[in-house]
Amino acid sequence: MGSLPSAHFSYRASSLYCEEVALCDLASQYGTPLYVYSRQTIEEAAQKYETAFCSIAHKLCYAVKANSNLAILKILQKRGWGFDIVSLGELARVLQIGADPKKIVFSGVGKTEEEIRVALSAGVGVFNIESEPEFERLAKIAAQMHCRPRVYFRVNPDVDAHTHPYISTGLKTNKFGVDFYSAFGLLKRAAVCESVELAGIDCHIGSQLTSFEPYFDACDRLLDLLKKLRAAGIELKDIDFGGGVGVCYRDETVEPIENLVLGLKSRLTQSGFDHLRIVMEPGRSIVAAAGLLLCSVQYVKTTPVKHFLITDAGMNDLIRPALYAAWMPVLPIRQSDCPEVLFDVVGPVCESSDWLARDRVLPAQAGELLAVTMAGAYGMSMASRYNSRRLPAEVLVSGKTSQLIRSRDSLEDLWTNEIVPADI
Ligand SMILES: *Cc1c(COP(=O)(O)O)cnc(C)c1O
């Protein structure tokens, strides 16, 4: 099944609670499938980073793509966090909740001219540049617009993050970052370019990293580059290690953030780069444990070889199992004494990849509610309307209160932007 994701989820009288609210009550009030988030779990995850960095110059930017709901962004903005964005849509979201543009880092390999223009007009704090043509595009547009954006260069340190290949980004075979050997030449050019201010260096080597060694390897690589730059008379202000800190979905152990921060800081100090401000862009480790997907079992289907629990949530609501073969915990909302059977938990979508969990022992029967936990990151933000399924509703729980933070799509939402030409 899986263990409880944080101290803010508990069974009380055999019924699963998020903070002080019974999940079965949320299911009756808002329907299923439903994303439910524990505010306290988010606050505590953010607090861990803040504590780890408390005596060190730093900047924390939440990676919006992990979960981009405005209410969740607002929680982090109120704590003083900046944001790591990768699209115009994410820029609009963070501006919508009143984020300080100066605290925004614009990442991503494919920034369009339009995105660059809009971000420059908005006064975005830093552009993370991922290639030479992107540097040229940004420098040209900045010159036209008479502004001088601060830039970091994302360097691909060619280190193995030992994570799933789809979420590994720091190997030289990946599309991300400037390749390590070309970086020096490009940074030297940027240092004398009048239309940008070279402020830092960046790497983001992958996601769901459960060991900090790959960060330390990447740090050492970046320090080699910083030393070469220093020899050429170029000093930077910031060093950005991206996001990527893993969480425990099943049995992974992740060291405390302090170990990462202290390890990075001591490497910088030893090499004479103590003055650099450390930037981090965590996404998953801030929101994963806070969220669960509540769904209801429609049918128990038994074939000669398998038992299936068919739920009203599918791969369109939560794609991590289908996309990465991710193992996610599944918990019954009511602990019951109905017999435990080995089930595959699947959705209603017309694809065999539409599964949420495989080979789980669950005491479930038709009509029961289940929670796929650890679903706060890359859950709703990757949801789609495939099979013309409406995007689920989202609820934020804080103590005894629950608030709707996204209503379920209406049927009309499914075709809002579609047009049937009159002469068809
Ligand atoms: C995805 C991403 C992050 C966040 O990664 P997590 O694994 O969710 O912490 C941070 N920075 C960049 C550039 C990213 O692409």
How helix-rich are the residues, as a percent range?
Answer: 25-40%
CATH H-tier superfamily of the largest domain: Alanine racemase
Architecture per CATH nomenclature, i.e. the level-2 architecture of the largest domain = Alpha-Beta Barrel
Termini separation: 52 Å
Hetero compounds: pyridoxal-5'-phosphate
Low-confidence stretches: none
Going by helix content, strand content and strand pairing, the class is alpha/beta
Radius of gyration over C-alpha positions, nearest whole angstrom:
23 Å
| E-strand count | 21
Mean pLDDT: 96
Examine the coordinates and then state which fold CATH places here, giving the name of the CATH topology of the largest domain: TIM Barrel
CATH classification, class level of the largest domain:
Alpha Beta
Q: Beta-sheet strand percentage?
A: 15-25%
Largest sheet: 9 strands, mixed
- Shape field: globular
Number of domains: 2
Count helical runs: 11
